Amino acid sequence: MKKMILFFSHHLTEAQIEDAQKNYAIEEFVSLPKELQPLWSQIDPDIPTLKEGLKPLFDFLKTEAKKGDYALIQGDFGAVYLMVNYAKELGVIPVYATTKREAVEYIDENGKLVKKSVFEHRRFREYE
């Protein structure tokens, strides 16, 4: 049974779930536990280094995933870099979601220009 471990700050969309099931044979999606999610979603921008602070997340991946599982990794650039490399060391396949963005601009009732972006999932792509 293949898993996708979610190092991700959002909820998966139906399109993302369907894509992962169809194209990667994912049978289980594993979110970070409540106590670990803030470590990933709210990385302190003032700390000089990340590696030690991410250790609980590295431990979670090592415990939860097996070789050939997938990890959806998106977030802080430095944390993503470290987690992608660690996933590869474990034989876990790191991926990220690609989207198509459509921007719509309009004038609201107060005469202000409003720009709204809508993102549509296209596919997952492996980090190379």
Task: Provide structural commentary.
The protein contains 4 helices and 5 strands. The protein is of the alpha/beta class and 128 residues long. It has one domain (2-126). β3, α4 (77-90) and β4 (93-107) form a beta-alpha-beta unit. α3 runs parallel beside α4 (77-90). It is globular and about 55 Å long.
In short:
The chain has 4 helices and 5 strands. With 128 residues, it is of the alpha/beta class.
Write the topology of this structure.
Blueprint: E1 2-7, H1 14-24, E2 26-31, H2 37-41, H3 55-64, E3 70-73, H4 77-90, E4 93-107, E5 113-126
Parallel strand pairs: 1-2, 1-3, 3-4
Antiparallel strand pairs: 4-5
Count of runs of 4 or more consecutive helical residues: 4
> Strand order, biggest sheet?
2-1-3-4-5
Q: What string gives the helices and strands in order?
A: EHEHHEHEE
Helix/sheet category: alpha/beta
In terms of per-residue confidence, which ranges show pLDDT below 50 for 5 or more consecutive residues? none
CA radius of gyration? 17 Å
Strand content bin: 35-45%
Major sheet characteristics? 5 strands, mixed
Task: Tell me how many strands there are.
Answer: 5
Q: Judging from the principal axes of the Cα atoms, what is the shape? A: globular
